[in-house]
Amino acid sequence: MPEKIRHFNPDGIESMLTAISPPEHQLLGRSNRDRLIGITTTVPSECIFAAGLVPVDLNNIFITSPDAKEMIIRAENAGFPKNTCCWIKGIWSAAKQAGISRVIGVVQGDCSNTRALMEMFSYGGVECIPFSFPYGRERELMEVELKLLCKRLGTSIEAARDWQNRLAPARRLLREIDLRTFRNSAVTGIENHLWQVCSSDFAGDPETYESAARAFLDAVSKREAPPPFVRLAYIGVPPICSGLYDFLEEHGARIIFNEMQRQFAMPGAEERTLVEQYLDYTYPYDIFLRLEDIRREIKSRDIAGVIHYTQSFCYHQIEDCIVRDELPVPVLTLDADRPGAIDGATKTRLEAFVEMLA
Fold this sequence. Notes:
The protein is an alpha/beta fold. The protein has a domain at 23-158: Rossmann fold, CATH 3.40.50. Helices cover 50% and strands 14% of the residues. It is built from 17 helices and 10 strands. The protein has helices spanning 10-20, 24-28, 45-50, 58-63, 68-77, 86-98, 114-123, 139-153, 157-182, 189-197, 206-220, 244-250, 259-264, 274-279, 287-300, 320-326, 344-357, and strands spanning 36-39, 54-57, 102-108, 127-132, 230-235, 241-242, 253-258, 305-311, 331-336, 340-341. The strands form 3 sheets. The chain has a 4-stranded parallel beta sheet with strand order 2-1-3-4. Strands 7-5-8-9 form a 4-stranded parallel beta sheet, with helices on both faces. The radius of gyration is 20 Å and the shape is globular. The protein starts with 9 loop residues before the first helix and ends with a helix.
């Protein structure tokens, strides 16, 4: 088995998180509170910033809250079924707890429960703005959706295109962070995950985010190379459970490809039009487009095995049989329901998977 990987200082991760994702009370306590708009997943943030608004990814507010478990219970007490995805329940509680008055919900191309979630928001007095990723990836429909979103937010598609250019430097830095994850192993799997997952809303402050990313890259350039490790990919939605990345590194493995998190960061967006950027974003579309991207990255990153995370009660669980048939390397499927540390059974399966690959 490979030697254990040297850990990045946890205090460093805390500092990084504080820099790119200010605590909830700081973000929501600003004088521009009325400019905040919740999002249920990654949406065209260029349109939001063009309207002078501040996007708040409700997933991140939920999963980073010390009360994440209690937020699930509050949603269930309000009537959400226990056999509903906990991300949906967490998003609802996060918006309610934060006093968010407007939400953009993806009603095509994300969770199949989002429509009902939007109805719950509307019932509670929250203004709901729908957005759809066209099922067949039609260029004309995507252009219509982008223009409609801009109109609903009180801005123009031209202003959104201008913001695409303004966000390009931050997206290029994210691309560099990803490259340093698998080319020289300077960036750890959890750092790669955090930087990319936070790009859904740029922590509400793209300039601060960009500045923090530059400082981070300067810091990692001084790191020593870690010992050899088993090279893994993580595919599927970001995990609701914690401790996965650290546990793998403790056992001689590292995740060097975070599939959906990387898609949130829109790699290569600066080289495309705004319409093309959101047509090439694989997450909202079918599994076959995603598999093309995953196979390409498995080959280019010399990945030995894949961890496929499937959230309990999510329709993506059905796709696991296709994933296992179509990928050229061993696949370990993990399932989790509620927030919390990975359990003993999961740790045993992960350890055996790494030992087999090693």
